[in-house]
Amino acid sequence: MQKHQNFDTELQANQARIDDVTKSGQELIDADHYAKDQIRERLDEMQDLWKQLTDQSGRKGMELCEPFSLITKVENYKKLALAV
Prior knowledge:
Layout: H1 2-30, H2 36-83
C-alpha cells in the first residue's frame, strides 16, 4: 500500500512536466512549426498514455484499499457483536 502511495505522489509530481511539454508543443503548433502534424500526434499520444497510466493507478489504489475497508468493517462488526 505504501509503495502505491509513493507511486501516486510521484505521478502527481510529474503532472507538471506533462503540462509543460503540452504547452511547449502547443506553442510550436500555434507558431505553424513545419512539423506541427507530428508534434500534434506525439502530444496526443503522450496525453493518451498519461491518462491510461493515471487511470490504472487510480484503479490499483482502489483495489488495494478495498481489503482494508473490509477488514475495518469486520472489526467494527466484532466490536458491535461483543457489546451486545
